[in-house]
C-alpha cells in the first residue's frame, strides 16, 4: 500500500472514531461527510492524474464513475440525512453506555483489529490488503449503530459502515457503480422517510421511546 | 437454450410497475387509479404467473432456459421456486382486492412497490451473477421496508426502521462477500467460477478468504431471511404490517433462501469444508428450537406465526446445510415451497380473522368456527399440513427431511446419533403441532367473545386464496410428484 493511501485510510478511520463521541446529529453528519470525502479522495486524485496523463475515453469514464461515487457518499447521502434532521430535530445525546466504557470498548476493537491485521496481511492478496482497515471502520460504525437511540444517528452509522467498504469498490467493475449508488441513495431516502413518519407518529426521536410507547 | 422467457418474467411486473410510477404525478388520473389499482395488480400478477408457467414444459423436458449476457437461467434448480413465488403473489393479489384499505402509500406507488417486489424476487431466483444477486437482495429488502411502513398504524414505523437497519447492515455483509470473491476470481458469474478450473484454483489457494466470503453470505442473507440470531426484526414486522402485506411477504423466503443456497453451494463444491456445512446446520438447529419454543407462549397470533416462520426457516436451512448429501437441495426446495404455500394460507386466514375482529390477541378471540367456517377450515388444513400430518403435503416434506437427515447422520456418526437426531426433530414438530392446534382452539373453538360476536365470514375474494392453499396441501400430499418433477426428480 502506498503511504498516501494509508494516510487517507487513517484519516477516515479517525473521522469514524470521532463519530462515536459526537453529541449532536449535525456533528455526526459532518463527520460522515469527512469520512466519505477522505476515503474517496485518493482514488479520485489517482483517476484525475490518469485522466490528465492519458486523456483517454477509458480514463474519462473512470474519473466520472469515481467522482459520482465520491459525490454520492460525501455529499448526497449526508444531505439526505440532513434534510431528515431539518424535518425532525437535531438531537443532543450520548452513547447509551457511558463514555469510559465506550472508550474502553473502542480500544479493544482497535487492538483486536491490529492483531488480526498482523495475521491477515500474511495471507491476503495484495489487491485486498485494505481489508483490515475496512474491518476496523466497519466495526466502529456498527458500534455507533448499537450505542445510539437517535434513529438519524443510527442511519449515519449505517452510512459510515457502507462507506467503510468504499476502498474495496476501487477494483469493482464499472457497470456496478451506478446501481450501488442508486441503492445507497434509495436506502437513505427510505430511512429518512420512515424516521420522519415515525417522528410524526410518536412525537419523539428515540427508538427506545418508540419501543416503550407500544 | 437461449430464451427470452426468463427476462420476460422479470420485465412483465417491472414494466407495469414503472407505468404506475410514470403516471403517478398526473393528479387527474388519481381517481381512475383508486378504482382500478387492485384489478391492475391482479392482472399483472396473473400475467407474471402465466409467463412463469410457460417455462415449466421446457424445464420438465430437461431444457435450461438462459439469457447468458444477463446471467439469467431457469432449470430444475429454480423452477419450483419461481412457480411458488408467482403463485403466492397471485393468491395474495386476489386477497388484496378486498383486504387493502389504503395506507401511507398512494395506490399508484403501492402497486409500483408491490410489482417491484415481485420483480426483485424473480430476479433473485433467476440471477446467477454475484453482483446481480446482491442488487436484487438489497432491492427486495428496501421495497419490503417501504411496504411495512405502508401500514398507517404506529407500530409499522418502528418495525420498518428496525427491519431497515438490521437488513441494511446484513446487505453490507453480502456485498463484502461478493467483493472478496470478485477480487479473488475477477469474475462474477457463478457458473464460470465453478466450471473454470483456472478461476476456482485461485479460490482454493485462499481458503481463509473463501470461508470469510461464505460466512458473510450466511450472516448477510441469514439476517434477511430472519434466522436466529439475526431474527430481531421478524416478530415486529408481522404485527406491524397490514394483513395483505404479510400475505405478499410469504413468498419472500423462497427467493432469499434459494439465493443463500446459490451463494453457498458452489463454493462448498470448490472447497468442501465441514465448517460451512456445520455453520448452516447449526444455525438451522438453533432457529428451529428457538422458533418453536418462543412461538409456544405467544398470545398475539402474528407474533406466534413470526416465531413459527423462524422454526420453519430453521428446518430448511438445516436440510440445505447438509451439503454433502445429494438429496439435501431437492428436499430443501420441496420443504421451502410447501412451507411458504402453507404459511400463506395460514397468514391470510388469520388476516381475515384480524380483518373481522380487529384484534390479534388470541385470548380475546373464540367461537369463530361457525361464523367463519371456510377461513377456519383452510387455517386448520394448512396448519396441520405444516406440522407434517398425513396425508397432507407437509407430511411428505417432513418425511423427506427426516430421511435425508437420518441417512446423513447415520453415515457421519452411527445409528445412535441418527436416531437421537430423528427423535429431536420429531419433538420439535410436536411442539409446532401443539401450539398451532392450540391457536386454532383459541381462535375458532369455544364460545364467542365480546370481540367476535359480531364477526362473520369474509368476502369470497379473501377466503378463496386460503382455500386454494388448503386444496394444494391436499393435492401435493396425495401427488407429491407434481412438485418433485419441477425440482427435477423423475
Describe the structure.
The complex is a heterodimer of chains A (214) and B (490). Chain A is mostly helical and 214 residues long. Chain A has one domain (3-212). Chain A is 81% helix and 0% strand. Chain A is built from 9 helices and no strands. Chain A has helices at residues 3-21, 25-54, 57-87, 99-123, 131-147, 151-164, 166-169, 176-202, 207-212. In chain A, helix 1 (3-21) runs antiparallel to helix 2, helix 3 packs parallel to helix 8 and helix 6 packs antiparallel against helix 8 (176-202). In chain A, 41% of the residues are buried. The model of chain A has no long low-confidence stretch (mean pLDDT 83). In chain B, a hairpin with a 4-residue loop joins strand 1 and strand 2. Chain B has a domain at 283-490. In chain B, helix 16 packs antiparallel against helix 17 (373-387). Chain B has helices at 5-23, 30-53, 56-60, 79-99, 107-126, 130-149, 154-185, 190-195, 197-205, 207-225, 234-240, 243-249, 252-270, 274-295, 301-320, 328-357, 373-387, 393-413, 415-444, 460-478, 481-487, and strands at 65-67, 72-74. The longest helix of chain B is centred in the middle third of the chain and has 32 residues, at 154-185. Chain B has 490 residues and is mainly alpha-helical. The model of chain B has no long low-confidence stretch (mean pLDDT 91). Chain B has a two-stranded antiparallel sheet. Helix content of chain B is 76%, strand content 1%. The two termini of chain B are 21 Å apart. The interface between A and B is large, with 40 and 32 residues.
Amino acid at each position: 500500500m502506498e503511504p498516501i493511501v494509508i494516510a487517507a485510510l487513517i484519516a477516515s478511520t479517525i473521522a469514524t472514531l470521532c463519530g462515536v463521541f459526537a453529541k449532536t446529529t449535525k456533528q455526526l453528519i459532518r463527520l460522515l461527510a469527512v469520512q466519505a470525502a477522505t476515503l474517496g479522495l485518493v482514488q479520485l486524485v489517482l483517476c484525475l492524474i490518469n485522466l490528465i496523463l492519458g486523456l483517454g475515453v477509458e480514463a474519462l469514464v473512470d474519473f466520472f464513475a469515481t467522482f459520482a461515487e465520491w459525490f454520492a457518499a460525501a455529499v448526497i447521502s449526508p444531505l439526505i440525512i440532513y434534510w431528515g434532521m431539518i424535518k425532525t430535530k437535531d438531537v443532543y445525546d450520548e452513547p447509551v453506555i457511558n463514555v469510559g466504557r465506550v472508550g474502553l470498548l473502542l480500544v479493544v476493537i482497535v487492538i483486536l483489529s491490529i492483531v488480526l491485521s498482523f495475521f491477515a496481511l500474511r495471507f491476503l492478496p495484495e489487491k485486498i490488503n485494505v481489508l483490515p482497515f475496512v474491518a476496523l471502520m466497519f466495526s466502529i460504525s456498527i458500534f455507533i449503530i448499537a450505542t445510539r437511540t437517535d434513529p438519524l444517528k443510527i442511519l449515519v452509522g449505517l452510512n459510515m459502515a457502507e462507506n467503510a467498504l468504499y476502498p474495496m469498490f476501487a477494483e469493482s467493475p464499472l457497470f456496478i457503480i451506478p446501481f450501488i449508488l442508486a441503492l445507497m441513495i434509495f436506502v437513505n431516502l427510505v430511512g429518512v422517510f420512515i424516521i420522519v413518519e415515525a417522528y410524526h407518529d410518536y412525537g419523539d426521536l428515540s427508538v427506545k421511546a418508540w419501543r416503550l410507547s407500544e | 437454450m437461449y430464451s427470452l422467457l426468463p427476462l420476460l418474467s422479470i420485465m412483465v411486473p417491472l414494466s407495469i410497475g414503472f407505468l404506475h410510477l410514470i403516471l403517478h404525478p398526473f393528479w387527474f388520473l388519481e381517481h381512475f387509479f383508486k378504482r382500478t389499482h387492485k384489478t391492475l395488480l391482479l392482472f399483472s400478477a396473473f400475467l407474471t404467473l402465466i409467463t412463469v408457467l410457460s417455462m415449466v414444459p421446457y424445464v420438465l423436458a430437461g431444457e435450461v432456459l438462459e439469457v447468458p449476457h444477463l446471467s439469467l437461467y431457469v432449470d430444475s434448480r429454480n423452477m419450483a421456486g419461481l412457480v411458488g413465488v408467482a403463485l403466492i403473489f397471485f393468491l395474495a393479489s386476489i386477497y388484496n382486492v378486498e383486504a387493502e384499505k389504503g395506507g401511507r402509500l398512494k395506490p399508484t406507488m403501492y402497486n409500483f412497490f408491490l410489482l417491484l417486489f415481485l420483480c426483485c424476487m424473480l430476479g433473485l431466483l433467476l440471477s446467477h451473477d454475484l453482483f446481480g444477486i446482491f442488487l436484487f437482495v438489497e432491492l427486495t429488502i428496501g421495497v419490503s421496508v417501504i411496504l411495512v411502513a405502508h401500514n398507517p398504524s404506529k407500530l409499522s414505523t418502528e418495525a420498518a426502521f428496525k427491519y431497515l437497519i438490521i437488513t441494511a447492515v446484513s446487505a453490507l455483509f453480502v456485498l463484502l462477500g461478493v467483493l472478496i470473491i470478485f477480487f479473488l476470481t475477477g469474475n462474477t458469474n457463478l457458473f464460470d467460477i465453478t466450471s473454470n478450473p483456472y478461476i476456482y484454483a485461485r479460490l482454493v489457494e485462499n481458503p481463509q478468504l473463501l470461508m470469510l466470503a461464505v460466512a458473510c453470505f450466511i450472516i448477510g442473507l441469514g439476517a434477511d431471511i430472519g434466522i436466529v440470531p439475526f431474527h430481531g426484526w421478524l416478530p415486529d414486522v408481522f404485527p406491524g404490517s397490514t394483513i395483505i402485506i404479510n400475505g405478499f411477504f410469504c413468498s419472500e423466503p423462497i427467493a432469499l433462501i434459494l439465493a443463500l443456497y446459490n451463494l453457498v453451494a458452489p463454493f462448498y463444491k470448490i472447497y468442501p469444508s465441514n465448517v460451512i456445512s456445520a455453520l448452516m446446520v447449526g444455525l438451522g438447529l438453533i432457529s428451529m428450537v428457538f422458533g418453536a419454543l418462543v412461538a409456544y407462549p405467544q398470545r398475539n397470533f402474528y407474533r406466534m406465526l413470526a416465531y413459527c416462520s423462524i422454526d420453519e426457516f430453521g428446518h430448511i436451512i438445516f436440510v440445505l446445510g447438509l451439503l454433502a448429501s445429494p438429496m439435501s437441495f431437492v428436499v430443501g426446495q420441496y420443504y421451502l415451497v410447501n412451507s411458504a404455500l402453507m404459511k400463506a394460507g395460514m397468514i391470510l386466514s388469520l388476516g381475515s380473522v384480524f380483518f373481522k375482529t380487529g384484534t390479534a390477541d388470541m385470548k380475546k378471540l373464540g367461537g369463530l368456527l361457525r361464523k367463519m367456517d371456510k377461513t377456519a377450515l383452510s387455517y386448520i388444513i394448512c396448519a396441520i399440513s405444516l406440522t407434517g400430518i398425513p396425508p397432507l403435503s407437509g407430511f411428505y416434506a417432513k418425511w423427506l427431511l427426516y430421511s435425508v437427515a437420518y441417512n446423513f447422520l447415520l453415515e457421519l456418526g452411527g445409528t445412535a446419533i441418527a436416531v437421537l437426531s430423528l427423535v429431536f426433530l420429531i419433538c420439535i414438530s410436536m411442539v409446532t403441532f401443539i401450539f398451532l392446534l392450540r391457536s386454532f382452539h383459541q381462535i375458532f373453538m369455544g364460545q364467542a367473545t365480546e370481540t367476535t360476536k359480531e364477526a362473520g365470514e369474509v368476502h369470497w375474494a379473501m377466503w378463496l386464496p386460503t382455500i386454494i392453499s388448503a386444496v394444494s396441501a391436499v393435492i401435493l400430499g396425495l401427488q407429491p410428484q407434481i412438485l418433485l418433477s419441477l425440482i427435477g426428480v423423475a
